[in-house]
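Dear colleague,

Following up on yesterday's call, I've attached the two folding results inline so they're easy to grep. Please treat them as preliminary; we haven't cross-checked anything against experimental data yet. The first protein's sequence and C-alpha cells come first.
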Amino acid sequence: MNSFEDLGVPQNLLSKLSAQGITEPTPIQHQAIPKALEGRDILGLAQTGTGKTAAFVLPLLARVLKIGGKREKKSVQSLILAPTRELASQIETTVKSFIEGSHLRVRLVVGGVSIAGQIKRLSKGSDILVATPGRLIDLIDRNALQLGDTKFLVLDEADQMLDLGFIHSLRKIAELLPVERQTMLFSATMPKKMSELAENFLREPIRVEAAPSGKVADKIAQTIHFVSKQDKNKLLTDLLAHHKGELSIVFSRTKHGAEKLLKVIINSGFSAVSIHGNKSQGQRQRALKAFRTGENKVLVATDVAARGLDIPLVKHVYNFDLPNVAENYVHRIGRTARAGSDGCAIAFCSSEEISELRAIQKVLGASIPVASGKPWVDFGGEIGASKKLKPRSKNRWNRKKFSGPSKKKNSFSTPNKSHRGKTGSSALVA
C-alpha cells in the first residue's frame, strides 16, 4: 500500500490530497487509515509532525460523507477534542481543506472568544465539531449542543489533556456520548493513566505507532549551553543576532517569564510576539499570524505552543527554560525541522535545572552535545561540590547516577466498565 488510494481513501478526498501536493501516506497514516475506515477503534502513538491529523481526519470524513443524513438542531455527528486552542484551530483548518465544496459543516469552539456567537452557530447542528474540553463543557452547561447522536469521537494529544487537568471534563463529556460510536485516541506518550483510559474506553482497539516518545527528528541538530541564570538573557540575544532573518521560537516555563523575556528581546532590537494562557484567543491568533508570515521573527511561548504548531519555516527552537515535564522537550523541539527541513534546537541549562536535564536525557536515551559551558560545574559557586558530576568524555556524562524526577502516586480511579461491556464508557478518553 504505497498510496492513499491503496489505503481505501475515497476519490473525493484523493482529489483534495492531490491538490495539496500530498501523494504518499506517512507511517502512522499507513497503519491507521485502513482500520479506521473499517470502523475500528484506534489507539495511536505518534508525535506531532508525523501526519497523525490526516490519519484520523481522512477516515472520519470518509465515513461521515458516506453516512449522510439530515442534520438535527444542536446535534454533533463527529467530535474532535484537542488540549489547546492552537491545536484545535489547526485541526479545523485541516478539516476545512478536505471538505471544501461539500455539504459538511465544521465548527470550532475554544475559549478566549465570545461564547454567544458559538451558541448561535451550534444551534443549527454540526457535522464535525472541533473543541477544547473546557469550552465544550461551558456550552453543554448552557444547553447549546447535544451529544446523544455523536457517532465519531477523536481525542488528539490525549496525554497533554490529562497533564492539563481535563480528566473531570472528559468524564462529564463521556456520560453524554452514546455507547455505540467509533473512538480514535492519539497520544504522544503512554503513561499508566493513559493506559487505563485506553483499556476502559476503547473497544478492542487497533494499536498503531510512529515516532514514539523520545524519538527526535533526524534533521534536528541539538545543542546545550551550560549557563548561569543571570547570563541567559545575554546569551539568547547574542545567539538570535547570528540568525536575525530566520524564524525562532523561544520557550519559557511560565506566562510571567514569557512576558519578561519578550521585553528583553524587543529591547535588544528584535521583532517579537508572545503567546501564552493569559492572552485572549484574538491576541494569540494575531501573534501567530504575524510570526507565520515573518512579520515578527521571534515567538516567545509557553508550552501552549509545544504541540500542534505547524510552521514549516521555523529554523531555531530555544529552550530558554527547560520544561518541568521531560517529554515536553521533545514536543518543543519538534516545532522545527518540519516538512523535511533542517532545524536547530538550543537548550539553556542553569544550575537549578540539572534535574530537568537529567530527566530529558533519560527520555532521549542520550546526552545532548555541549555548545558552551562545562557540565555540572558550580557556575561560580551556585552548585556545591556534592552536586557535581564529572564528564565521561567531551560530550558524555557519567549517567550512573542518572534518575528522572520522582513520580507521584497515580490518583486516577478507574470508572465503571459496565456501560460498554469490556471497555466501559462513563469517562471519556483524552
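Below is the second protein, in the same order (sequence, then structure):
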Amino acid sequence: MSPGRRVAVIGGGLAGITAALDCAAAGAQVTLVEVRPRLGGAAYSFEREGLRMDNGQHVFLRSCPAYRELLGRLGSSHRVSIQPRLEIPVLKPGARRAMLRRGALPAPLHLAGALARYPHLSLSQRARAALAALALARLDLSDETLDRVTLGAWLDSHHQGPEAVSALWDLIALPTLNLPASEASLALGAFVFANGLLSGADAGDIGFHAAALSETIGEPAAPALSGAGAEVRLGWRAERLERTAQGFEVHGPGDGLSAEAVIVAVPHTRAGALLEPLIAGSARRLEELGSSPIVNLHVVYDRPVSEERFAAGVGTPVQYLFDRTSAAGAPAGHQYLAVSLSGAEREMGESVDALRERYLPALSALLPRAREATVEAFMVTREHAATFRAAPGVAALRPGPRTSVPGLVLAGAWTDTGWPATLEGAVLSGHAAATEALSALGVEASAGAALAVSGVGLPEAGAR
C-alpha cells in the first residue's frame, strides 16, 4: 500500500459502509470505526421475547438504485423483494379495505385509476387531488423558493382540505419525510412525489426486507468490508479529531488512528462534537437541522389477525402496520405486527401503558380478528432523533461532503443528497463522500461511486 492513502471512516451505518467499500475498491487503506458492537447504524435488529425484531420498518422504492446496488455488494439482494406493481392497502375503521394500485399506463396516468376509485375521498375531492398531483409534478425542483413554504400550505392553495391531506397526501409524506405535510418542506415533498411516484410508472413500487435488518445489512457488511481489504473496529468510539502535519489523528480508546483523509459518517446530532475543533462554525450549524422522532410498536398476537403484508391507516392513529411474523421467527400460529409511527412527537412522551391503551383498540378497529385474539407481547422502540427535521429552510442547512478542511469529509442521510432521510440518501452520501475523500488523496474513485456522484439515479442539482 502506497503511503498517503489511508482513509478513516467514522460510523458504520449505510453511509459509512458504502464509503468504506468505495475507498477500499479504489485502493485506499481503509479503517472503519463504529461505537456500537455491530454495523448497520439506525437499521438494526434486536432480540426480545424470543423474536428478532427490527428497530424500525425501513422500506425502499424501485427508484432507489444506489441502495439496491449496495445490497448486491453485500450479497443481500435475496433478502429483499420489490412489488411487481405498487399496491398500498388502506384500512379505515368501519370501512371496507381500499387499495391504491398503479395501473399499466405511463406516468403520471398510471395512478389515475387508483385515485378515481379511492373511496376515502369524495368524487370532487378526487378530481381536485388529481389536479394537485399534476401541478406538483410540474414544479421546478431546482427552484430554491420551494424550500420556504410547507407542503401543506401548497396543498391548501391547491384546494386540498384537511380530509384530503389526511386520507391521501400524508400517506406518502409522513413515512418519507418523517413529518406531516403541514410541517414539511414543499421542496422535499415535491421531490418525493416527483421521484418516487411520478418519474416513471414503476418508480414507486415498494421494496421490503424479507429478513431482519441486521441479517440484511449489518451482518453481511462485516465480511464484505473484510473481503474488500478494509479494517473494521467495532465498539470503538471516536472521541476527538486532530489535524496533523500528515493529515488527521482520530483519538479513541487505546491507540489513535492516523489517516490522510477522514469521513465523518455519524448522525448529525453527534457529528458536531467531532467537527467542532476543526470547523467550529459549520459544526454548530448542524444543530439547526433539528430532528424528528419515530416510534415503533411491536405487537404479538396468539393467532393471525391480518392478511396484509403491510397496510396504511386512515381515520386511525395507526399510520402503517407491517407483518413481521416470518422475519422475526415468531412461534407457529402467532402473528407479529409492527406499527410504524413517523413524526411521533406525541408518542415519544407517552408511556408504554398509555400507548398500549390507545393502540390496541385502534388495531382492533382496523382488524376485526384482533378483537378475539390475545396479545402475547406489546413492546415499544423509540428513535428520539431518527432523522433531521425536513421543515422549510432545511436545504440551506444540509452540508455537502466537502468541508473547508481538505481531506475532512461528511457523509450521512442528513447531508445534501437531494433526498430526504432515506436508505437511498444514506448510500448516495457514502458514494459522494468516498469520491471527495479519494480526490483529496489524488485517487480516482471507482466507477460505481463516480456514476452515483455524477448524477445517475440522482435528482437535478438543487432538488431537495
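For the second protein, one point worth flagging: Confidence is low (pLDDT under 50) at residues 451-464.

Best wishes,
A.L.
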